[in-house]
Amino acid sequence: MFFDSWISVFKIIMMALLIYPAVILLLRISGKRTLSKMNMFDLVITVAIGSTVATILLSSQVKWLDGIAALSSLIFLQYAVTWLEVRSKTFTSFVKGEPQLLMYQGEMVETAMKKERVKADEIRQAIRSQGVYSLGRVKAVVLETDGSFSVITKETDPGDSSLKDVDGMQAPKK
Questions:
Q1: 135 CB-contact burial (10 Å; exposed 0-12 / middle 13-18 / buried 19+)
Q2: Cα 22 to chain centroid, rounded
Q3: Any idea what DSSP says for residue 141?
Q4: CA dist., res. 51 & res. 59, Å (int)
Q5: At which of 94, 110, 132 does a domain end?
Q6: Can you tell me the distance from the alpha carbon of 55 to that of 93, in angstroms, rounded to the nearest whole number?
Q7: Same-domain status, 78 and 130
Q8: Is the separation of the CB atoms in 159 and 170 below 8 Å?
Q9: Looking only at Cα atoms, what is the longest distance across the chain?
Q10: pTM given for the model
Q11: What single-letter DSSP state applies at residue 38?
Q12: Are residues 117 and 145 in the same domain?
């Protein structure tokens, strides 16, 4: 139950010594995006890579080359998806979704909050975490595609708005 043989322990150690550098190399090849703040697809790929590495290390039936092929396939798919995301708005909205306006000009956008399952106290917490004391200083709060909150404060310099691609910005509704 706790120990089968030294051979199985040695095999796990050897597989780890072989897989670890391969994972590092594959992640370096795939680019920084693989390790960036995660949207839904990035999270799924990260979990799948972790599960694949664990299976490679612990299963006596998975050979090293099979494991590398599985890891390479997952990382290639992640690369292909991000490549398509950069080139297609339709594909991006399918994989990533759109940022959602939750508060605008001091007013909570109730329909958006319900849709995104966000409570008012979570929005206030996001505002506090940005060091903003007064809700009157807040122009908008946006739920980003990676699940983080962006808090935009009122400014005196009206330039291009960072809110132009945010869902609900066209006509905020309560």
A1: middle
A2: 23
A3: E
A4: 11
A5: 94
A6: 32
A7: no
A8: no
A9: 70
A10: 0.62
A11: -
A12: yes
- Determine the Cα–Cα distance for residues 15 and 70; give it in Å rounded to an integer: 15
Model confidence pLDDT, tens digit, residues 107-148: 999 999 999 999 999 999 999 999 988 888 899 999 988 788
102: helix, coil or strand?
strand
Asked, for residue 141, whether it belongs to a domain, the answer is yes
13 and 55 together in one domain: yes
In the chain, the number of structural domains is: 2
**Residue 167 is assigned to a structural domain of this protein:** no
Can you read off the two tokens belonging to residue 17? 């010594």
70, 149: one domain? no
Residues 45 and 58 in one domain: yes
Q: Look up the domain containing 123 and give its range.
A: 98-153
What is d(CA 50, CA 19) in angstroms, rounded to the nearest whole number?
A: 12
* Residue pLDDT, tens place only, 67-86: 889 989 998 888 888 889 88
Angle at CA of residue 131, ends 128 and 136, nearest 5°: 70
> Which residues have C-beta within 8 Å of that of residue 166, sequence separation ≥ 6?
98, 99, 100, 101, 140, 142
- Token couple for 25: 């190399």
